[in-house]
Amino acid sequence: MIEKESIARDAPWVALLNLEKGYGDGFVNLKSGATKVTNAGIGISDGADSGKNWSRTYIRQTPAQLVPGDRFEERTVFLLFRCSREGPLDSFLQLGEEIRTKFAGVP
Prior knowledge:
By secondary structure, the chain is mostly beta strands. It has one domain (13-102). It has one helix and five strands, in the order E-E-E-E-E-H. It has one helix at residues 90-102; strands spanning 13-18, 23-34, 41-46, 52-57, 72-82. It has a three-stranded antiparallel sheet with strand order 1-2-5. It is flat. The N and C termini lie far apart (35 Å).
């Protein structure tokens, strides 16, 4: 289901888990934006060896005229973390909160 529908482009985080191997990877979005947006979102797609990939797009499936001065900005932290069946996102959410606290107010 998640592969068929976009996640909001300003989602605060996305994490992909491999509970069998005990790790996950994800990102914490600190800041993102663009001066032009068309069908924006975050998508999940198949990767190599049955893996998954995510991508954030601001202009997708529809041509958009970009002009000098148009901007794209993103501040994102990528994380590789341990996870377990008992608390699959505990480590990720804790690290995410620490990162947000550390970088609060940084332009």
